[in-house]
Design brief:
Layout lengths: L2 H8 L21 H12 L6 E4 L6 H8 L3 E6 L2 H10 L5 H16 L16 H4 L2 H15 L6 H17 L3 E2 L6 E2 L4 H6 L2 H16 L8 E4 L7 H4 L2 E6 L14 H6 L6 H10 L7 H6 L11 H11 L6 H22 L3 E12 L1 E3 L2 E3 L1 H12 L2 E10 L7 E8 L1
Parallel strand pairs: 1-2, 1-6, 2-5, 6-7
Antiparallel strand pairs: 3-4, 7-11, 8-9, 10-11
Length: 405
């Protein structure tokens, strides 16, 4: 059975997105439509000079901007995304590309008998994620990558990005729905997989795009979007971003396997802590802490007040917690928008790609709340444009909420 067919059966995750070529597809986490939206917005402003994305994600806005020879800065509260975007928007020398290719060959040649083998990361029920053979392979490859001298940062980063692609390909996890599931292992399929070939293929995919020259580099900052510092970031005339949605989805969820393997997470509690610090997080302790959260009431809105009350009165044991989740999300975004204004030039344009949400059948008109918050903060010419349906539920839509400062 061909490797491609085997992998298709083993993991829905690799087929969730319409993967694009180049650096956008380095972690298989960038949907093609997201790139298209950013490119279309950038095309509207040929005179833009500095672009900001305060919710970095996988660096889509930053990379699209510097590809257009624009100065770009991006921030995120997640250190893994900062590392990844920094690596993704860096220029790599021909020497680094060739050194990385040779390192890959050497790693696979000496695998299991020359380099120290790392222990599996402390992921809960890790045997559900990977078969015994795949887990052994990953531990050996990661041990070899860790053995790369610290001075060879570019080589190490490129190898780690390829490693991240490989570990998801070999995974039994399916991320194509809100509740993650796992496929049952299949020993026959497992025997068919040529893991060396998969890792080599992923290295070549990464190196092919790393070899392309980018005329600009992005400034990437570990930063809380609610506390943007203009002395560090500077000023901007265009903002394009897609903040976390108010949809109860943990934004650390799909990143956990990468973050554990690369050492950004060492225990489950750390994931919960990071989700609590982030906007819209609901993982682990982030949910339990909502029970004690009290609204600051820095921002009020009639629809928000009504929908929070309606959700809280729903006959469900989690209703009160989720009503607080929606309220906290909106207060956090308001705090962010106030902070954002300190970094904007007069006449700056902002575009927020955001989706609405439902809780127990109650529609939260997030796009209208964003527009109202922008109005209260001092933005003008506010516009709400529907971009696309998010899924089969006709009421769930993604919007571009834009304004002028």
């Amino acid at each position: 059975m061909p490797v491609a067919t085997t992998l298709k059966q083993r993991s829905d995750y690799t087929h969730k997105y319409n993967i694009t070529s180049g650096r956008h597809g380095w972690l298989r986490l960038t949907p093609a439509y997201s790139i298209k939206v950013v490119e279309e917005i950038l095309a509207l402003y040929p005179d833009a000079t500095r672009v900001l994305d305060p919710f970095c994600g996988t660096g889509t806005t930053a990379l699209c901007s510097i590809n257009r020879k624009l100065s770009a800065a991006t921030t995120d509260i997640n250190p893994f995304l900062i590392w990844f975007t920094t690596a993704k928007t860096r220029n790599y020398s021909k020497t680094s590309v060739e050194v990385t290719r040779n390192a890959c060959r050497q790693i696979l040649k000496d695998l299991g008998h020359k380099f120290p083998v790392v222990s599996p990361p402390p992921i809960h029920n890790i045997e559900r994620w990977w078969s015994e053979a795949s887990l052994k392979f990953l531990c050996e490859v990661k041990g070899a990558i860790n053995n790369i001298p610290l001075g060879d940062e570019e080589c190490r980063d490129l190898l780690n990005i390829a490693f991240c692609r490989t570990l998801i390909k070999l995974s039994n996890a399916a991320f194509n729905h809100q509740s993650m599931s796992f496929k049952d292992g299949n020993e026959e399929l497992d025997l068919e997989i040529d893991r060396d070939a998969i890792f080599t293929c992923d290295i070549e995919h990464i190196l092919a795009s790393a070899d392309e020259f980018i005329s600009e580099t992005a400034n990437v900052y570990l930063h809380d979007a609610r506390k943007l510092n203009p002395q560090i970031l500077g000023s901007f005339d265009l903002v394009i971003t897609s903040p976390p949605y108010a949809n109860r989805m943990s934004y650390i969820r799909e990143l956990r396997p990468y973050m554990y393997w690369l050492g950004y997470l060492k225990e489950a509690r750390e994931a919960g802590e990071l989700d609590w610090q982030a906007i819209g997080g609901t993982w682990g302790i982030a949910t339990s802490r909502l029970k004690d959260w009290t609204a600051c009431k820095n921002y009020t809105n009639e629809h928000l007040s009504d929908i929070v009350l309606t959700i809280s009165r729903t006959e469900n044991k989690h209703a009160e917690t989720l009503s607080r989740y929606v309220h906290k999300y909106c207060e956090d975004i308001y705090e962010h928008l106030v902070s954002l204004t300190t970094t904007l030039k007069k006449g700056a344009r902002v575009h927020y790609i955001i989706g609405n949400s439902t809780f127990y059948g109650n529609l939260v008109k997030v796009e209208e709340i964003y527009a109202d918050m922008m109005r209260e903060v001092g933005f003008d010419d506010i516009n709400i444009r529907a971009i696309r349906k998010r899924n089969s539920k006709k009421e769930l839509v993604e919007f571009d909420v834009s304004a002028i400062w």
